[in-house]
Design brief:
The complex is a heterodimer of chains A (418) and B (1119). Chain A has seven helices and 23 strands. Chain A has 418 residues and is an alpha+beta fold. Helix content of chain B is 53%, strand content 9%. In chain B, strands 10, 11, 12, 13, 14 and 15 form a six-stranded antiparallel β-sheet that branches. In chain B, strands 1-2-3-7-5 form a five-stranded antiparallel β-sheet, with no helix packed on it. Classes of the chains: A alpha+beta (418), B alpha+beta (1119).
């Protein structure tokens, strides 16, 4: 299936190659470079590129192109999903997935890639198994390794691969047994000029951090499971149980993982936490424009809106911005034409306002479209959909774990058209 | 640190080293390389593991950067037997990379791996095989072959998995081994572990994707294992099964596709292509019987559905394409939600999903319509995503939503992304062509765009307007005039050319302007682009033909200019046109027809999606994405005309839908004792993975039954939950048995829910398995069976005649795999064990206090056992007397054939979503009636019927009872069908009372209250009533309610029965059930008050059912 993998940075340097079948010359990447050049933006490189003898399927993550070489028919999503899994594994191992960390840990990267694919077909992609096979580097371990000469490769052979629950490693032991669940919801919305909602939905995930000894069997139930009609689960979740009882029953992997994600699309259910009053206008003459933005709370369920940031992608003709913010700071980058207004906490008594003039390139016609605003925000201790965890029960082990649930609401792709 | 140091060392150690792209072979560098390698060699030769490791790390770092390290081969290969596991692994990495180049030296390492293959540790065996098979050296092909064969029968499933992985490797190395490899694949396909399934199907797909016959026997197993296979394997299996299903089952939409075509015809009268299709279609359809889905087809759909919830986008896509290609039209809709969910993922995923959605939305527009807004475009989307979303939006546009879509398009036109704007304008054009109502609106909108400042926008609009105008030019001469005025301002050649063409084409509508435009263009002719020049010539020619008086000279002038143009196309065109239109003495025959040539009516262009007809490629495939066949793509076959023999998939249990074979099984069972004493050798598989036994054990049963699917993934790890299920299962069986003994009546199709995967049974079963094995050779035994104990009073002659039929059938499944045999064996044994030790102490009366769910079900089950004749009499299977019989066909109208039916309140085993209807045929004539069967069911949408098997002969005076299943979809709509005999057809109709649409569930009082709490508000219907005179005691009330509806009584809480408190002043009776088809809970509460007054409350999600039920129960109670 996957023949080879090339990692290419944003500047077009090929800095790592790995072949699972016979070696394919790196010159095959020329086709990729060609497409990359044509696309201008890295986002616009077509994920699948056809060359005379191969197909290149690539993803772009963290400023790195993961370019895989395919020779025969294979579902493209299969490859794309796998490449993302590779990127996530790097992130998991090295804290971030960047060119520097990959170069610094090139041997571990190579060992990982070797384990993840066999003859181009995925072999071990579960983080629990991989971590048993190849230990992630920590500062302490690398110190010890350099002194004693011991290695990162696990001494014991992994058993996870053999078990019927391949996602959990065996023999887990903790002194403090704890299980934390973060319910994170993101609001995706498009608001039109007048502030009415064109489209809104909630994208939620439950991130779990489970550090429990032995083989715990957990079941998580909700106060209002009816909210969830479109869900996807980590493979550990027993789907039948969910279907019949609306209870999430699972034997968790060890450590951090995403238990489930859900999608709430009914528009009337989606509360929009803030409103934006904006007025952006460009003048026909004088090559200037005015801008006036005010943000205020709308449906916040009594919680404070934090980390409020407004980002505006200005038209190309805008040279500079001379604005005055009543709260927070703003910054206009004339190169990328991005205006960022970092507001911080939203104070309902005194609404933050950004006002001032924009100067345009002289002589250029005024832009036809007003830029749309992207809003970023965060509300602690609130799941905007109203989802509430009812209880978490543990079976199969004797001890009493510490349990915790946290709710956060964030803005996802939250856009205000102007 | 160690790793990083390796990298730094690499760099530091050779400052002169070239960066990528430099030529590593250039002289000076080569020598320094050589030196450095010497140093590495030294390190590799040392005894210290740490030095070796260091060296290997540096070498691997070189490989990763694409440097040549092949000259180190001898030094590295020596370390293949190194004790240090990391060194070893890195050596493997090196070996696999360079073995192909250094074949002779690579052979040195082979013996190490051969030794590894014999290691007691399965992981070492697996890794040895993995590396051995990855070394691409042709000489060792025989060794690899041997190793693969051996590993394929290894005890460890992990090693077998590795063997499966090795198969395509060997195949690509030496395709001559194909035949032998197919044998191995065949063997591994029969493997029962989830671990192997994905890998072997992958091997199958790479080596012999056309050997579909290998799948037959494993089809059901694969379907059932699917949910537990790892995600990558799932993708491969689902894609393969899609192809398989296309070859083996009938098109579920065969009837609908015809309907649809007809309706489409009405809409677009000018569809010529479909005409032929239709004709082809109609002929066979007339003969075709009503479509009944193959249960295996259903099994596949059912078992893949949960995977739509997978976190893996590839799995979701695989299921989506399976549904798109295989499911009945009504069911395809469920994939839309999942696909829309994927749109939140990474942009690459979005890109692929949108491509597929675009294709689907052409075929099945309705499917995505509810999600229209999810395809709205954000200014931050990458352009390629925007354009795909636009495509989908356009496909989804119809009369009702076009106004919203156009409003949305309006905002897009203002975008800063010009490519996207151009695409939006084209999209508007497409909407306008597809939807007549908005054509004018669109056209006006586009005309407004003509005054846009951006030239690209204007140009694109002109091109689109041109296409639109071609459809109805007469009404729009003012637009043409407007465009003529624009020509001075528009510089984009394509747009200019379009305007000129328009004016030329419709010069009759703008007789005054056209010559003027030509005059202007003649002035600038030399400076125009080629494409514009050609159109000027065209315009001139057309004007010459229509209005030669005014334009003769102009045309001459233009043609003269063109004659000396630099472009030969233009010179050619000028010459050609001059010959055609300008009359000369020698002008040929053609010039007579010049007008016809130039001013012929041009057909309007069809603006259609580039995704049209892409669905002949399997969706989700690379080929679909590229719209071209990729290497190794397997065509998705067309549905077969008639279904191939479904019995090829029979593993061992014969098709339960056939009454005959069921009887056979009984008979066989009578012949053979359960325990044949011979010993069987147990294969390595059995001992290695006991859990797989149970897994496969349950699976074959669940193939025939959905209700038990809770324990489908019968694995030990889930034991807790599982055991609960089993307990329940056992209870049910026990109960059933009780009923049987009581009713002394053969209960049809009660093989249902005979799941067995409990550890208890397993132990007991194992012995039986062994015994069974040796016995399996004998054909007759092979079908001995699960329904054995029902056979008591089946008539002997009948089964004899059936045996003949069976004998004809059996050779097909000559070598039934063992697993199902085990299963059936286990079951029968289990039944008998239950008879012995569980059945006797039945009449204990007081239920135990419920502790948890498990014991609560125990309580109710115990109740079911012991109190049958008191409280719960009607809820369990009632003796035939108390069941109300309905008439289906009267003796007189049926010409002597009387048919009655009743709702037996049995679970209908082949499909738990169906209501079992027991039908009794009585032949009152003096001759025998033959071939009793059902034809042409006419059903409301969603309803399904499972017919009883044809009754061959019903001799005079005899009567026979059969059971059929009807899925009423929780409605009281009648199921209509024709009852056919060999001579006549009778129209018949079965309408269920609402109470029969449910099946009892056992809840404790607490559970009941909890469930009730969830069903408040709209879902609760409450009514006051006065009890009838006879409803004086508890017994009567309970009996009345349960007679009206198939519910079970909820045991009164502990407070009443266990701990002797004073009886509560107002007794409350609770009943619980769920609807058969959708499984919605139905909760009924009757609370009595003094004076014969009472309050009736029904809680049910389906309000209609609730209302009807309230009415029925009220009536029953107030009598």
């Amino acid at each position: 299936m996957i023949h080879s993998l090339f990692l290419i940075n944003n500047a077009g340097d090929l800095f790592l190659e790995k072949h699972w079948k016979s070696v394919i010359s790196r010159s095959v990447c020329d086709y990729f470079f060609e497409a990359r050049e044509k696309a201008v933006e890295p986002d616009n490189v077509p994920p699948v590129i056809r060359t005379p003898h191969h197909y290149l399927i690539n993803i772009y993550r963290e400023k790195i192109f993961f370019v895989s070489v395919i020779q025969t028919e294979v579902p493209p999503l299969f490859v794309i999903e796998f490449l993302h899994r590779v990127a996530e594994t790097f992130q998991d191992y090295f804290g971030e997935c960047s060119e520097t960390t990959i170069k610094d840990n090139v041997v571990i990267v190579y060992e990982l890639l070797e384990e993840m694919l066999d003859n181009g077909f995925p072999l071990a992609t579960e983080s629990n198994i991989l971590k048993e096979l190849i230990r992630p580097p920590t500062i302490l371990r690398s110190m010890v390794n350099t002194i004693t000469g011991s290695s990162n490769v696990g001494e014991t052979l992994p058993t996870g691969q053999l078990s019927t629950i391949p996602w959990r490693r065996a023999g887990v032991k903790y002194t403090n047994n704890e299980a934390y669940f973060d319910v994170v919801e993101e609001i995706d919305a498009i608001l039109d000029k007048s502030g009415t909602t064109v489209f809104a939905e909630i994208q939620g995930v439950i991130e779990a951090c489970v550090k429990l000894s032995g083989m715990p069997d957990l079941s998580l139930s909700f106060m209002n499971p009816r909210l969830l009609d479109d869900v996807s689960f980590h493979p550990c979740v027993r789907y039948k149980r969910w279907e019949s009882e609306r209870v999430i029953s699972f034997i968790p992997p060890d450590g951090n993982f995403q238990l489930m994600s859900y999608h709430i699309s009914a528009q009337n259910l989606v509360a929009i936490p803030v409103y934006v009053k904006q007025n952006i206008s460009f003048f026909e003459t004088g090559s200037s424009g005015r801008m006036d933005i005010t943000v205020g709370p709308k449906q916040t369920m009594g919680k404070t809106v934090e980390c409020l940031v407004v980002t505006v992608h200005m038209p190309k003709v805008v040279l500079s911005a001379n604005l005055n913010a009543t709260q927070g700071t703003y910054n206009y980058d004339p190169v990328t034409k991005i205006l960022v207004w970092d507001i911080g906490k939203l104070n309902p008594q005194k609404l933050p306002n950004l006002k001032g003039s924009l100067s345009l390139q002289s002589g250029a016609p005024k832009p036809e479209e007003n830029p749309s605003l992207n809003i970023d925000l965060k509300i602690q201790q609130l799941a905007i959909s109203g989802l509430k965890v009812n209880r978490l029960d543990m079976y199969g082990e004797k001890y009493k774990p510490f349990k915790g649930v946290k709710y956060v609401t964030k803005a996802g792709k939250f856009q205000v058209r102007t | 640190m160690s790793a990083s140091s390796a990298f730094i060392d690499e760099k530091g150690g050779s400052a002169s080293e070239p960066e990528y792209g430099h030529d590593p072979a250039s002289g000076g560098i080569f020598s320094s390389d050589y030196k450095r390698h010497d140093d590495l060699k030294e390190m590799l030769d040392s005894n210290k593991d740490s030095l070796k490791l260091e060296a290997m790390k540096r070498i691997v770092a070189m490989i990763a950067r694409g440097k040549n390290a092949s000259d180190l081969f001898p030094a590295v290969v020596k370390n293949v037997a190194c004790k240090n596991i990391e060194v070893k692994k890195l050596v493997y990495v090196y070996l696999v990379r360079y073995a192909e180049e250094q074949q002779d030296l690579a052979l040195l390492s082979i013996s190490t791996f051969q030794r590894g293959l014999k290691d007691p540790n399965q992981l070492i065996r697996a890794s040895a095989l993995r590396v051995l098979s990855s070394i691409r050296v042709t000489i060792i092909v025989p060794i690899m072959m041997l190793a693969i064969k051996e590993a394929a029968s290894d005890m460890s499933p992990y090693v077998r998995k590795t063997a499966a992985h090795a198969i395509p490797k060997l195949h690509s190395l030496d395709p001559d081994q194909k035949d032998q490899l197919i044998e191995v694949i065949e063997k591994l396909l029969a493997d029962k572990t989830t671990l192997v399934a994905g890998s072997v199907v992958m091997a199958f797909e790479e080596v012999c994707p056309d050997r579909i016959d290998l799948i037959h026997k494993n089809y059901r197993k694969l379907c059932n294992l699917l949910i537990d296979v790892e995600e990558w394997g799932q993708v491969v299996i689902i894609n393969m099964l899609t192809r398989y299903a296309r070859t083996q089952f009938l098109n579920p939409n065969i009837n609908e596709s015809l309907l649809e075509e007809n309706s489409e015809k009405a809409f677009y009268a000018s569809d010529d292509e479909e005409e032929e299709d239709k004709k082809d279609e109609v002929a066979p359809l007339a003969k075709r019987k009503p479509y009944v889905m193959d249960p295996d087809h259903r099994l596949l759909l059912r078992n893949t559905k949960p995977l739509l919830q997978s976190r893996n986008a590839a799995v979701v896509m695989a299921v989506a394409q399976l549904y798109f290609h295989l499911a009945p039209k009504a069911e395809v809709g469920i994939i839309a939600k999942a696909l829309v969910r994927l749109m939140r993922s990474h942009s690459e995923v979005q890109y692929v999903v949108l491509q597929n959605v675009a294709t689907m939305s052409i075929k099945r527009r309705g499917m995505f319509e509810p999600y229209l807004k999810s395809f709205y475009i954000r200014s931050t989307d990458p352009t390629q995503i925007k354009i795909l979303k636009l495509e989908v939006l356009t496909n989804l546009a119809n009369e009702t939503n076009i106004s919203t879509i156009l409003r949305e398009f309006q905002t897009y036109i203002k975008s800063m992304d010009k490519d996207f704007v151009a695409a939006s304008i084209q999209a508007i054009g497409r909407c306008a062509t597809n939807i007549g109502e908005v054509r004018d609106t669109c056209l006006n909108g586009l005309v407004q765009l003509l005054s846009n400042r951006d030239e690209l926008v204007v140009a694109e609009s002109v091109v689109v307007i041109k296409k639109l105008l071609q459809m109805q030019p007469e009404q729009h001469s003012d637009i043409i005039k407007h465009m003529a005025k624009l020509i001075d301002n528009i510089q984009v050649p394509m747009a200019r050319a379009s305007i000129l063409w328009l004016i030329g084409e419709y010069c009759e509508h703008v007789p005054k302007i056209a010559p003027d435009v030509l005059r202007n263009m003649a002035k600038t002719f030399t400076n125009e682009e080629d494409i514009v020049k050609l159109q000027i010539i065209n315009l001139a020619a057309k004007l010459y033909l229509t209005n030669s008086k005014q334009t003769k000279l102009l045309t001459q002038y233009v043609l003269n200019l063109a004659k000396y143009d630099q472009n030969y196309d233009i010179r050619d065109r000028a010459r050609f046109i001059r010959q055609l239109i300008v009359p000369t003495d020698k002008s040929g025959a053609l010039s007579k027809y010049a007008k016809k040539l130039f001013l012929a009516l041009k057909p309007a262009p069809v603006l259609e999606s580039t995704f049209k007809d892409r669905d002949h490629f399997q969706l989700g495939s690379l080929s679909h994405l590229l719209n071209a066949k990729a290497g190794g793509y397997q065509e998705l076959p067309d549905w077969p005309e008639s279904a191939p023999d479904p019995s090829v998939r029979n593993v061992e249990i014969p098709d339960w839908s056939k009454c005959t074979s069921r009887k056979d099984r009984k008979e066989k069972k009578a012949e053979k004792p359960f325990y044949s004493d011979s010993d069987g050798e147990s294969g390595p598989t059995e001992s290695a993975d006991s859990e797989s036994d149970s897994g496969s054990g349950s699976e074959s049963a669940s193939a025939s039954d959905e209700s038990g699917s809770g324990s489908e993934s019968g694995e030990e790890t889930e034991s807790e939950e599982e055991e609960e299920d089993e307990e329940e299962e056992k209870k049910k069986k026990r109960k059933k048995h009780l009923d049987k003994t009581k009713a002394k009546k053969p209960v049809e199709e009660s093989t249902e829910s005979e799941q067995s995967s409990g550890s208890e049974e397993r132990k007991r079963g194992r012995k039986a398995v062994k015994n069974q094995k040796s016995a399996s050779e004998s054909e007759s035994e092979s079908e001995s069976s699960e329904s054995g104990d029902e056979s008591e009073d089946e008539s002997e002659e009948e089964s004899e005649s059936d045996t003949d039929i069976r004998k004809k059938k059996t050779p097909v499944s000559k070598q039934p795999p063992k697993q199902s045999k085990k299963e059936s064996k286990k079951e029968t044994q289990e039944m008998s064990l239950l008879d012995l030790d569980d059945f006797e102490p039945a009449p204990a009366s007081a239920p135990v206090t419920p502790v948890n769910f498990m014991s609560s079900s125990l309580v109710s089950d115990l109740e079911g056992l012991s109190l049958t004749d008191t409280i719960l009499a009607p809820t369990t299977i009632t003796p035939s007397g108390s069941i109300k019989m309905y008439e289906l066909l009267h003796r007189i109208t049926g010409e002597g054939l009387a048919v009655e039916y009743c709702f037996s309140r049995q679970p209908f085993s082949p499909d738990p979503n169906m209501v079992a209807v027991q039908i009794q045929f009585t032949n009152n004539t003096n001759s025998e009636t033959k071939n009793l069967h059902i034809e042409e069911p006419r059903l409301q949408c969603g309803m399904r019927i499972r017919e009883f098997a044809e009754i061959d002969v019903l001799s005079a005076g005899e009567s026979v009872t059969v059971v059929m299943g009807i899925d009423f979809c929780d409605s009281t709509q009648a199921a209509n069908f024709q009852l056919c005999t060999h001579t006549r057809k009778f129209f018949a109709s079965i309408q269920p009372p609402v109470g029969e649409l449910m099946t009892p569930v056992f809840l404790t009082e607490n559970d009941f209250k909890k469930e009730q709490g969830k069903l408040m508000g709209m879902n609760e219907i409450s009514e006051k009533l006065t009890l009838g005179e006879k409803c004086v005691n508890e017994h009567v009330i309970v009996e009345r309610v349960t007679a009206t509806a198939n519910l079970s009584r909820v045991p009164c809480g502990s407070d009443k029965e266990c701990s002797t408190p004073p009886p509560p002043p107002a007794p409350v009776y609770r009943f619980a059930g769920k609807t058969v088809s959708s499984g919605c809970l139905v909760l009924v509460t009757v609370s009595t008050k003094e004076g014969g007054r009472a309050q009736l409350t029904v809680n049910c999600e389906k309000m209609l059912i609730g209302t009807m039920l309230v009415k029925d129960i009220m009536q029953a109670l107030s009598q």
